[in-house]
Amino acid sequence: MKTLFVYFMVKLLLQFPGLFSDGTRFYPSDVAIVESSTPTVLNIKIVTFNVLVEIEEKNGISSWDDRKQLCAKILEKSDADFIGLQEPTPWQVSYLNKQLPVYDVLYFKKNIVHFTDVVLMYRSDKYDLIEHGWWWLSPEPQRPSLGFGNDFPRILIWGKFRHIESGREIFVMNTHFDNTMPSQSRMAELNTKMLKKLTNTGLPIVLMGDFNTDPTRGRYDLLVSNGWNDAYLSSEKSSETGLDNNVPTAFGRTRIDHILYFGDTIIANGWKRIESTDPQKKLSDHWPVFTELIIH
Questions:
Q1: The model's pTM
Q2: Beta bridge partners of 36
Q3: Please, which residues have CB within 8 angstroms of residue 173's CB and are 6 or more apart in sequence?
Q4: Domains (range + CATH), the chain
């Protein structure tokens, strides 16, 4: 039943995109230059995690029912301010949200469609949501669509947040690139174009996700150009063995899950791959990735 439901939601999106196009949600309404002031230094913890969709079985990975409690505990222990999830079904999102009640959840939902391939969770006790939205990773980013060689719709979810205590604002985004070429490259090119307007706001920006792109595949060069930084490369020590490009974030793959950031006031203060606390049980076919960012 869950497989049929997910299939139906995707078919509905692609067959009737006009029902789910929403210009007011497509792009932030306020892109004015931010006036400088004496800021409060913020330490922001970020986690990105492809949880593996529960309707897919992979060798060596337990069912979602068997690993969901462990996943929830790992995320809770991270004490992250923002968590980006990729691949969850609505039921996985519902479970994690119930286990982590300090977070509010953002994803694409309109009319009867709940498209949860990309989900952004945020600490609502620490951050107010000013506005949020999405764009589709396609030649028509304002509406649900394909077009880059992918067979499954891909999306970026963004939120503009205000830190309650200090009043400082930040954009936080989550995405999931397709696992085929050349779609990965085209999605990177589209995002570079879409993000350019936001980089002129003066606000720090965090972009996380499963990019299915490593430093040798796709347009990773674009992801870390024009002022964008990879928290992994910017951290003094990115793994227990030191800084290298050989720390995989997906089983049988390479480092394809990234936390990127933009802005003169933001720096990375550490990066790590979160390991399962149960050596007999994998969390997913990806490891969660954690970083701490400091905004001056």
A1: 0.90
A2: none
A3: 120, 156, 157, 158, 159, 205, 206, 207, 208, 209
A4: 2-295 (3.60.10.10)
